[in-house]
Amino acid sequence: MKKHTVDMTRGNIFRLIIAFALPIMVSGILQTLYNAADMIVVGKFAGKESLAAVGSTSSAINLMLNIFVGISSATNVIVARKFGAGNKSGVSKTVHTAMAACIGGGVLITIAGILFSKQILIWMDSPSDVIELSALYMRIYFLGISATLLYNFGSAILRAVGDSKRPTYFLMLSGVINVVLNLVFVIVFHMGVAGVAVATVISQCVAAALVLRCLIKTDECFKLNIKKIALCAAEFKEMLMLGIPAGIQGSIFSISNILIQSSINSVGSDAMAGSSAAISIEGVVYIAMNTFFHATLTFISQNYGAHNFKRMRKGFWTGFFITFVVGATIGALVVCFDNILVGFYTDIPHVIDIACERLRYICLPYFLCGMMEVGTGALRGIGVATRAMIVCVIGVCGVRVFTVMTNAPYNEVRDLIPLYYSYPISWVITTTLLTVIFFLILRKREKEWLQHIEDKAVNG
Q1: Vertex 410, ends 406 and 414: CA angle to 5°?
Q2: What per-residue confidence (pLDDT) applies to 332?
Q3: Residues 84-94: b if buried by 16+ CB within 10 A, e if exposed
Q4: pTM of the predicted model, to two decimals?
Q5: Under 8 Å CB-to-CB from 211, ≥6 apart: which residues?
């Protein structure tokens, strides 16, 4: 049987990170493009209100998902660390605990999403010509949220052991299904926003089923046995300790983004539509940057389990360099071709101008976001989730919320420019803090480990 796991505690660091990150990046960008197809289809065939409705829901959806996304990230850290240390029993217990948490979380989010979607949109000041469509999209989306969580948890487990390729293939296939169903439901059956949501749910179910099949069929230590799915107290506690800070961080990010989205909403549906198109394009750049969060998280976690401190330092700076090159290149390309890219979403000149202006301020320096992702992944990889959360909340959310509050009210498109500035400023502040803290903690833990080895040698 073909071996899919990768030991990141040995071998060329640059090649390992690239080989691990590239499939995730390709799948993520393709998935973002597939999701962009949702908005392109509704924008072209159902009008700007439908475009605004689909595009303006991401912050609200993420707000309700973030705690469990954080726990899935913690699953990656714990499995990778135990895999790097050769603890097969610990890997198995973590896998079955993660699946139990995933199933329970799916039920809770489905109920909450259906009940509270419209109220959240009201808090976001969604215009009357958009809010009902947005609420419909969110309710249908949350009906299939269990599949989304199953894919996230399952792919986190596979990536933790170095298998980034198979989750990539599954996501690509589900994305193709999503695009095809979008076209059928919206153009052929005239289902509008509802058709886009149903297509998304079906494609997520396909991806989830394929990942679960991998976990069930494998003979490796991360094999999933349906009958063994249960919460193991020690592993679940560890997941919560690492995952809840990450989830809170994501939730506060979402709240700050909701505040920004509310400011954009107050300017009107043209600003919403333009911003939605720009955010969709930014999503492609973000996915490329977030790839290096996953690569750094897995690399640092495995090597931390193996106590390879020197290798962790090299991995951090290698991730920084690769992220800078990739982010600067993609950001520049987006800005060069912004009119063409936005033109896929809408034909309205004013809306295109709004989207392009946002892209120029945010996409060009997006490599800074990638470097921040590397710092976040490194800290979480050594188990420092709470401090990573505090730094990101202060550095990112604090700056953005301060900008929103000090520049209100927002009456026209030009008023939104200070909001765009807040993104690169927040990335610089946060990246600097994360880097300093990571190396200070790593140096302290290396000294503690060396002292432990020395004491063991003396006493043994």
Answers
A1: 100
A2: 92
A3: bbebeebbbbb
A4: 0.70
A5: 150, 151, 154, 155, 158, 166, 167, 170
